[in-house]
Amino acid sequence: xxxxxxxxxxxxxxxxxxxxxxxxxxxxxxxxxxxxxxxxxxxxxxxxxxxxxxxxxxxxxxxxxxxxxxxxxxxxxxxxxxxxxxxxxxxxxxxxxxxxxxxxxxxxxxxxxxxxxxxxxxxxxxxxxxxxxxxxxxxxxxxxxxxxxxxxxxxxxxxxxxxxxxxxxxxxxxxxxxxxxxxxxxxxxxxxxxxxxxxxxxxxxxxxxxxxxxxxxxxxxxxxxxxxxxxxxxxxxxxxxxxxxxxxxxxxxxxxxxxxxxxxxxxxxxxxxxxxxxxxxxxxxxxxxxxxxxxxxxxxxxxxxxxxxxxxxxxxxxxxxxxxxxxxxxxxxxxxxxxxxxxxxxxxxxxxxxxxxxxxxxxxxxxxxxxxxxx
Amino acid sequence: xxxxxxxxxxxxxxxxxxxxxxxxxxxxxxxxxxxxxxxxxxxxxxxxxxxxxxxxxxxxxxxxxxxxxxxxxxxxxxxxxxxxxxxxxxxxxxxxxxxxxxxxxxxxxxxxxxxxxxxxxxxxxxxxxxxxxxxxxxxxxxxxxxxxxxxxxxxxxxxxxxxxxxxxxxxxxxxxxxxxxxxxxxxxxxxxxxxxxxxxxxxxxxxxxxxxxxxxxxxxxxxxxxxxxxxxxxxxxxxxxxxxxxxxxxxxxxxxxxxxxxxxxxxxxxxxxxxxxxxxxxxxxxxxxxxxxxxxxxxxxxxxxxxxxxxxxxxxx
Lengths: 375, 317
Prior knowledge:
The complex is a heterodimer. In chain A, about 55% of the residues lie in helices and about 10% in strands. Chain A has a 4-stranded parallel sheet, with helices on both faces. Chain A has 3 domains: about 5-130, Rossmann fold; about 140-205; about 210-375, Rossmann fold, CATH 3.40.50. Chain A contains 16 helices and 8 strands. By secondary structure, chain A is an alpha/beta fold. Chain A has helices at about 15-25, 40-45, 55-70, 90-100, 115-125, 130-160, 165-180, 185-200, 220-225, 230-240, 250-255, 260, 270-275, 290-300, 315-335, 350-370, and strands spanning about 5-10, 30, 75, 105-110, 210-220, 240-245, 305-315, 335-340. In chain A, helix 1 runs antiparallel to helix 6 (about 130-160) and helix 14 packs parallel to helix 15. Chain B is of the alpha/beta class. Chain B has 2 domains: about 5-145, no CATH class; about 170-310, 3-Layer(aba) Sandwich (Rossmann fold). Chain B is about 50% helix and about 10% strand. Chain B contains 14 helices and 8 strands. In chain B, strands 6-5-7-8 form a 4-stranded parallel sheet, with helices on both faces. A two-stranded parallel sheet of chain B has the order 1-3. In chain B, helix 1 packs antiparallel against helix 7, helix 2 crosses helix 3 (about 45-60) and helix 11 (about 215-225) crosses helix 12. The longest helix of chain B has 20 residues, at about 130-150. Chain B starts with a helix and ends in a 5-residue tail after the last helix. The model of chain B has no long low-confidence stretch (mean pLDDT about 85). The interface of A and B includes residues 90, 107 and 288 of A.
């Protein structure tokens, strides 16, 4: 197998910036699936199993839309469980075949005790050019990091302070496009500096404004993918809340998918810290981001956040289990906590009401200085 | 009786009795169990978890320790469903009685069943003397249990034979006109309350019924070689292997896929079973159980399914 064919991959927040870059470096023609819309989820949930978690439906919709755009090879990451994510690839393959599409699937399984097999997979993808693959991944990770840095440092934190709405979002959109087109490490660094300067110069802020700090945690796909969480971060930003996120696409790539490439000596990964924090309640990781969600409630308290919001797709197994424990943890930590469950339906008005009422509750807690009886 | 007890109860009972404990079984599931359990865990959890939570809560005050085995992984690579893994932790926060959870986790810290049970034995007796004897006796009885299953007794029947001295009555394919394979988790299929005893009902209708536990491990292993990715859940591997065998070998006329409401794994396994069944043109029925008991509805669906098979075979005009 050599780098040929028009390759595509599923969306997850900013991840497309990195994935696109890797495959372009390896010499593939890349078809980025169209941004997620109502149609994507409609296509996906038509043919996905009914009780499957929502990310799978988005992924399937992405695949179908990308195939319509001309892709013939699909890249997907595998997994070893216990979360269903590891079986997304094979299930999607089955369903797409049933629908009459016949794409070639490239599913890369993580190196769980089978390091040789893993490297053989990478060799195959890179067209037997092993020297190319590690630099390609590192370069893509740098791009991805820049995109996530911009979002976390500026968009999520600065949004509530801006004087005119949506200015930050406009700049960020332009920046993402430039990062995607950037060529070389120097260009990325320059773009980052420019972006920071632009933010200072073009977005008038009101630093005196009282703002709540909210920790967003939960399942990574719903957390990162704007459409699937109904723009929760933006809604919160417009209601004067600065957001922190428990994980980002960069962390996911560096810590979960390629830990051996990005491990630094004597430093712990973010998710390992979170697992340690969750130790009093849960003794062992149980897949997905379940245990980290619990750990991040503790971290939110330590950072002085005003509230924690868990986002999860409907029927997500690890998050449902975490939700068993979370109210108790939040009560012990004395921090307001709310859990949003997302599925393929969108009910904007109801959602907005719930977000607003939670924000009102956080203000209430901040004024009174303590959490009431209900969590 | 809940979750892993449906697979390992003989082993647990023998083992802890040999150590000098008195084993108290939780009451069979009833309406109250599910009510109590439903209040302890979140609404979105699957039915078996609610049943298990209710069963554990019903033991409170009656015993010194509640045993909730944590089966993370029995073999390298394979693991279990997330809800299953974290269940002892969730219950620890809810119950006052101390919980003993032997931690079987081969994948992360290379602890098999033996090491996990040894740790628990040390907590109970304080020394290793009686462990070896008890463990071997427990394994023997578990083997007998497995053999009874392979001789096509259902799990509750096998329990009766082992503990109540019932007679062995192998359920062999005989004159029955309709043969049906049932695949699902033992803790859903055999729970007398939530499953509405549909296997018994099928047999009373004169249908030869074979469940996935009756398929020996070596048959399941054959399936592992024929798919491009084996599911990484231990139970689902067995379940899918059995379903694959039943559908491919043509030993049954129809397959019933049993699951419960919001069973996470079933959405994947069900998809594969549907695919194989449609490829081999085997009738398939999905039965999903939840808190509600609608006996008439289940009977109607079972009868319709059996009639469908009869009609397909030309026995019904």
